[in-house]
C-alpha cells in the first residue's frame, strides 16, 4: 500500500473516532475495508486520492466475481462513502467516486429459529434441584414465553414482574416501555425461582435484580448465552442456538398457531410492522411443508 494512502486512512479513522466515539472493533473493521481497497487500487496502478468512479465499479465487480457476500460488499461501500465524503469535506480530494454508485441489493435473510420440539427439549434440560439451574429454567421460560430481548431479560428488576397479573414490564430499544404477558409455565417457574433459589443467591441481602449471578448482581448477556449453549449441548440440539434464536422461535411459533401479526409486533416491541413481517416468511414455509407432506396434490 502507498504510504500516503496509509496516512489518509489513519487520519480518517482518528477523525471519526473523535467525532463519533466508535468502538475499536468498528474502527478495525473500517481499517480492513479501506486497506483492502487501497491494496486493490495499488495493483490497478492508482491510489485512494486518484480513484475514479470506474475504479469503484471494477472493484465492486471484482468482489462480486470472487463471491463476496452482498452484505459485506454493501458494508465496504458504505465505509468508502464515509471516507470520500470526509475527504471532500476537508478538501483533500477533488471528487467522490462513490457518489453515483448504488448499494448491492440485499436479500432478506430469515432469522434462525428452533422447532417447538427443540424448544421443549431445551426448556426441560436444566436440573431444577440445583439453585443455579432453577434460575436458568425460569430465565429460559420467560425468554421464550415473553419473547424478550436478552438485554431486557438479564436487566429485569424484581419490581418489573407482576406474577399476580401475569405480566412483565420491560424497557426495549430507545427505553420504550411495554407490558408483555407471561404464560402459565413462565409464571410457575419464576415463582419457584423466587421462593427457592433467589434467597440463596441474594445471601440474605436486599437486591433489585430479578435474576442474580453468583456475584449477586444482574447477569451479563455473555454469561447467559454460554449457559444456553451448555443446555443445548446437553440436550443434543444440533441447531445453532442463542438467546435471540429463542426470541425468533417465540414469534414464529405464535404466527404458526394463528396469532395476528400486529399482536406479535406489540409483544416483540417492534415499532415498525415490516420488522415483524420477516417472521411470516418462516411461518409461510411451514405451511408449504405441511401442504407438501399431507395434501394429495402437494
> Helix count?
12
* Helix-strand string: HHHHHHHEEEHHHHH
Strand content: under 5%
Radius of gyration: 25 Å
- Determine and state the CATH class of the largest domain: Mainly Alpha
Straight-line N-to-C gap: 58 Å
The CATH architecture of the largest domain can be given as Orthogonal Bundle
Can I get a quick summary?
60% of the residues lie in helices and 4% in strands.
Index terms:
298 residues; mainly alpha; DNA polymerase, domain 1; hpI Integrase, Chain A; 2 domains; 3-stranded antiparallel β-sheet; 12 helices; 3 strands; elongated; disordered C terminus
Structural description of this entry:
This protein is mainly alpha-helical and 298 residues long. The chain has 2 domains: 3-89, DNA polymerase, domain 1, CATH 1.10.150; 116-294, Intergrase catalytic core (hpI Integrase, Chain A). Helix content is 60%, strand content 4%. It contains 12 helices and 3 strands; from the N terminus they run H-H-H-H-H-H-H-E-E-E-H-H-H-H-H. The protein has a 3-stranded antiparallel sheet with strand order 1-2-3, with no helix packed on it. Strand 2 (167-171) and strand 3 form a beta hairpin. The longest helix is centred in the C-terminal third of the chain and has 22 residues, at 273-294. It is elongated, with a radius of gyration of 25 Å. The model is unreliable at 294-298 (pLDDT under 50).
SSE diagram, text form:
Elements: H1 3-20, H2 24-43, H3 53-65, H4 70-89, H5 116-123, H6 131-146, H7 150-154, E1 161-162, E2 167-171, E3 177-181, H8 184-202, H9 221-235, H10 243-256, H11 261-268, H12 273-294
Antiparallel strand pairs: 1-2, 2-3
